[in-house]
Design goal:
The chain is mainly α and 77 residues long. It has one domain (3-71). 53% of the residues lie in helices and 8% in strands. It has 2 helices and 2 strands, in the order αββα. It has helices at 3-29, 58-71, and strands at 38-40, 50-52. It has a two-stranded antiparallel ribbon. The longest helix has 27 residues, at 3-29. The chain is elongated and about 50 Å long. 1% of the residues are buried.
Length: 77
């Protein structure tokens, strides 16, 4: 791997860490926890760092859907 790729990957990881922290904080404000939320470790092979949302119980998925729908102004979808 080249130095440019390592810099790119470092920048991607920093951006993902920031996004992950923001998402955790926003979910916490709504009283939601996604236990599997974290970085996708396989993504470093491609140079695109992803965030793994993971598995959740159905009641948490429904609460998350409600939260998103309210945020976009469409609570009755």
């Amino acid at each position: 791997m080249t130095a440019d790729f390592h810099r790119h990957l470092r920048d991607q990881r920093e951006r993902a860490d920031h996004a992950l922290a923001r998402l955790r904080a926003a979910l916490r404000l709504a009283g939601l926890v996604l236990p599997s939320l974290g970085p996708d470790h396989q993504s470093s092979l491609t140079g695109v760092v992803l965030i793994e949302l993971g598995a959740v119980r159905p009641d948490i998925a429904e609460q998350l859907a409600d939260l998103i729908a309210r945020g976009v102004g469409n609570a009755d979808f």
